[in-house]
Write a structure and sequence with these properties.
Layout lengths: L2 H9 L8 H4 L80 E3 L14 H11 L5 E3 L7 H12 L4 E3 L1 E2 L5 H18 L7 E5 L1 H6 L6 H23 L8 E6 L5 H4 L4 E5 L9 H20 L7 E7 L12 E2 L2 E2 L4 H21 L3 E3 L38
Parallel strand pairs: 1-2, 1-11, 2-3, 4-5, 5-6, 6-7, 7-8, 8-11
Antiparallel strand pairs: 9-10
Helix pairs in contact: 1-9, 3-4, 4-5, 9-10
Bound molecules: 2-acetamido-2-deoxy-beta-D-glucopyranose (NAG) (6 copies).
Length: 401
């Protein structure tokens, strides 16, 4: 079955664009990680374009053999970072409930969104101590609020085995773009390129500009704007004469991907959320794979440059608390014993199958983000951990064995 068929069957709906998405605009903002004046809708099914006659693509990727040996960063204990960030973060107690089983994880530290900057080295370091027990790769969302340096300093101080995909958030403000470009290149100069696996210029820029279309005049205008910035950043990056080649791409909703976009980037990071597909958890992992495959991987295969494809956000939210269960169509958020089954069904299945499939994915996400309460619904509650870094109960991290 195709992703659209799964969705249609499960929702009893006659495929796409019947207005259901609009009914939920109260809770559907997420992911751009930056406040916006207008509410965003998650359109990727609503406007899904049927991609006909596509040659099957193959997910290029290394089969991830993630075993969860009682993790342990890169081994280095107390590397005793230098730097102004506040010294060593290397001595920390490992939590044996955690397993290094996720290919990657989305990370947006608290205080990373202007004008509410305020991310602190000590807090970011605590986050990294936890996240490094779950994964070896982090995806960031912007280079505002000194985030790139804070994260790289934390990795250095803790001595954990992690690489990072930093990002520049793109909107209509060129000053902010330039500022982030400077801050990001400063951080790379200071901490070195070894820690960096790729850089995303833009997160959901196309979705914010054009909904989920993949062609047309507005699409082309937005793509030109975005690709100009990708090119500008790449020129700067190349000019740094780094010893390591760092690919440059963008992150966006899976629904906005096109061959034209593919040809402007070295990689695409696709956000695909079964929750917003309104699917029961039992269908979620399969649907996510199908959606990514049909709308992204197979499209990338048509581009001459064959960009690398990441699934950049997928996960399953919990509810605010045990008395307020949240649902969206057939999707139920997990929190109580009963509801957490939904979480486990989606997340465990996805993580273990994707590891076996060789999908390069970033789980969304490590920690709850209270600042997203303004967007309502499940927005603040996607974390494995609550905002105070408590592993949510009764969630258990899969071992995939
Ligand atoms: C660090 O993590 C990578 C995967 O991201 C893995 O291939 C490598 O073996 C790890 N290194 C150590 C020293 O554990
Ligand atoms: C950014 O963070 C780094 C690492 O902690 C620190 O060395 C630097 O002083 C910070 N810069 C600013 C402007 O806060
Ligand atoms: C970020 O860039 C701005 C201007 O481009 C600069 O004033 C500021 O010091 C930079 N901050 C860091 C942390 O590098
Ligand atoms: C950036 O420049 C390098 C070197 O020319 C090139 O290999 C890479 O494809 C470029 N990336 C983008 C997104 O243009
Ligand atoms: C893994 O791949 C198979 C097809 O080979 C697919 O049916 C399954 O849904 C995939 N699962 C994930 C989570 O990628
Ligand atoms: C549970 O969460 C809902 C939604 O955020 C809120 O209205 C309600 O007051 C909360 N209840 C408790 C007991 O915290």
């Amino acid at each position: 079955m195709t992703a659209d068929e799964i969705w249609a069957q499960e929702s009893g709906s006659n495929l796409i664009n019947n207005g259901r998405k609009e009914q939920y605009d109260g809770g559907a903002y997420y992911g751009s990680e930056q406040p916006k004046s207008s509410k965003k809708k998650w359109w990727w099914i609503g406007g899904a374009i049927l991609l006909a006659a596509i040659i099957a693509g193959v997910v290029a990727g290394v089969v991830v053999s993630q075993n969860n040996k009682k993790n342990n960063g890169s081994g280095s204990s107390g590397s005793g970072g230098s730097g102004s960030g506040g010294g060593s973060g290397g001595d920390f107690t490992k939590d044996d409930r955690l397993h290094k089983v996720f290919w990657g994880m989305a990370y947006d530290p608290e205080g990373a969104v202007p004008p509410m900057c305020g991310a602190k080295q000590s807090e970011v370091t605590k986050d990294i101590q936890i996240l490094s027990q779950l994964t070896t790769r982090l995806r960031l969302y912007s280079a505002n609020c000194n985030v790139t340096a804070l994260v790289m300093q934390a990795i250095k101080d803790t001595g954990v085995n992690m690489t990072v995909y930093p990002a520049i958030y793109v909107n209509q403000d060129d000053t902010i773009f330039t500022y982030q470009m400077n801050n990001l290149t400063d951080a790379i100069s200071k901490y070195g390129a070894d820690m960096v696996d790729g850089i995303a210029v833009g997160n959901e820029y196309m979705l914010n500009q054009v909904g989920s279309s993949t062609s047309g005049a507005a699409y082309n205008t937005a793509l030109k704007y975005l690709s100009d910035r990708i090119e500008r950043f790449n020129t700067t990056l190349q000019g740094m004469g780094l010893s390591k080649h760092i690919p440059v791409g963008t992150g966006d909703a899976g629904s906005v991907f096109s061959v034209a976009l593919a040809e402007k980037i070295d990689f695409f990071m696709s956000n695909v959320h079964p929750w917003f597909g309104e699917l029961p958890a039992a269908q979620a992992a399969k649907w996510t794979w199908s959606y990514f495959d049909e709308h992204n991987v197979q499209v990338a295969a048509q581009a001459t440059n064959k960009p690398n494809m990441y699934l950049a956000e997928t996960g399953w939210p919990t509810s605010a608390n045990e008395t307020k269960f949240m649902t969206l169509g057939g999707a139920q958020a997990g929190m109580s014993d009963l509801q957490s089954e939904q979480w486990h069904t989606c997340s465990n299945t996805y993580v273990c199958e994707a590891n076996a499939n060789g999908t390069e994915y970033f789980y969304f996400e490590g920690f709850d983000q209270p600042w997203k309460e303004q967007y309502g619904g499940v927005e603040p509650y996607w974390g494995l951990f609550d905002k105070d870094r408590n592993l949510k109960q009764p969630l258990t991290i899969p071992t995939c064995q």
